[in-house]
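sorry for the late reply, my laptop died twice this morning and i had to redo everyting from scratch. anyway the thing you sent over, i finally got around to it. pasting the sequence first so we're on the same page, its 136 residues, then the predicted structure underneath. double check i copied it right bc i was rushing
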Amino acid sequence: MGADGYGDIKRKIRKLKQSEKIIRRLDSDAGLVWTDFFTVKYPPKVLAAMDRQAYKDVVAEFYYGVYYKYCAENSASMQDMYDPEVLSRLGLPPDADARMIKGRFRELAKRFHPDAGGDDADFIALKKDYDSLYIR
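ok and here's the structure:
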């Protein structure tokens, strides 16, 4: 992406903002997934330094977040969909399945469990995140 230039990146992410507003049928910028995603997590300077595949992965992650938000707002079926923010905190991709989530939880639980020398607060936060995903 570095060859595209900073201005091209800004234009591309503005188009993503407009597409989210169309998908979610919004008139204002309030509550957009785009806002935190491209101002905090992946600001334009970070995107400009990425290669093409990394940029595509970021866009796919963004659209997953938009789709998740749309489904949540419209009471659509969210079977096998998990909160992308929680998955990110667990170090998982937004399209992680139940098997991946369980494996990652077990790995982190071993590291953070108080009996293994971990911190109580970290373990409790991990358990809350895992419980919020409602793994079947």
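The mean pLDDT is 88.
thats about all i looked at so far, will dig more tmrw
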